[in-house]
Design goal:
Helices cover 49% and strands 13% of the residues. By secondary structure, the protein is an alpha/beta fold. The longest helix is centred in the first third of the chain and has 36 residues. One of its GO terms (molecular function) is N-acetylglucosaminylphosphatidylinositol deacetylase activity.
């Protein structure tokens, strides 16, 4: 009980500063990020499964929409681990609509080469080849995906980072194409929602997106489109996860 009391006192003391910083960022972030990302960015979000876009990248997508950057999405599987692929494809399109991505900008790869399976390692060269083709066809100059930790450690997430890293290190990306990867954090930071903001400010990456309260509601609405995935623990995730509120991204 004493420990709970200490936590409550700490939250009460920290809350005013956290919310001041949050509202300050709301006023300032658009100008800062506009300078970092450039005015003509055509962004491509690369994900492994339907729901990754809402569960992990909603702050980035809504931040890019705020800056009026066109966004494309490339999903490397239909999320068919429990034979729900067709349902999950429709849920992804609904979520993207909430997040401001038109269906014409969404590509879902449904191939046996990329099964939704944490026990399968996707072929890096194959992923990289498809990704590069998509970048070139859509004239992409900003790629966003997972970092080496994959946020949750899922091997399919990590495979996307490996492919992007390969393209970047081998100089195969188009000239001027920037790569941003989503920072993975420890379990404690992952589930303290806006209380993580001070840590994010202290350890900020190259781009930091913090959602307004209205945008957080929009992010939750996008996540609610994935009805087939809303088990009890994911409902807790929606309540407590920092990734529905804050995205810190690092450039390769």
């Amino acid at each position: 009980m004493e420990a709970v009391g200490v936590v409550c006192v700490a939250v009460a003391l920290l809350a005013p500063g956290i919310f001041w910083a949050w509202h300050f960022l709301e006023r300032m972030k658009s100008q800062v990020q506009a300078g970092l990302l450039g005015s003509g960015s055509r962004a491509l979000l690369v994900i492994a499964h339907p729901d990754d876009e809402a569960m992990f990248f909603a702050p980035t997508l809504l931040g890019l929409a705020r800056l009026r950057h066109p966004v494309f999405l490339l999903c490397f599987s239909a999320g068919n681990y429990y034979n729900q692929g067709e349902i999950r494809k429709k849920e992804l399109l609904q979520s993207c609509d909430v997040l401001g991505i038109p269906p014409t900008n969404v590509m879902i790869i449904d191939s046996r080469d990329f099964p939704d399976d944490p026990g399968v390692q996707w072929d890096t060269e194959h992923v990289a080849s498809i990704l590069l083709q998509h970048i070139e066809v859509n004239d992409i100059n900003l790629v966003v995906t997972f970092d080496a930790g994959g946020v949750s450690g899922h091997r399919n997430h990590v495979a996307l980072y490996a492919a992007v890293r390969t393209l970047h290190s081998e100089g195969k990306l188009p000239e001027g194409c920037t790569v941003l990867t989503l920072q993975s954090v420890n379990v404690l930071r992952k589930y303290i929602a806006l209380l993580d903001l001070p840590f994010s400010l202290l350890h900020a990456g190259d781009v930091l997106f913090v959602l307004t309260s209205k945008e957080v509601t929009q992010a939750k609405r996008a996540m609610s489109c994935h009805r087939s995935q809303l088990l009890w623990f994911r409902r807790l995730y929606v309540l407590f996860s920092r990734y529905l509120r804050i995205n810190s991204l690092h450039a390769l």
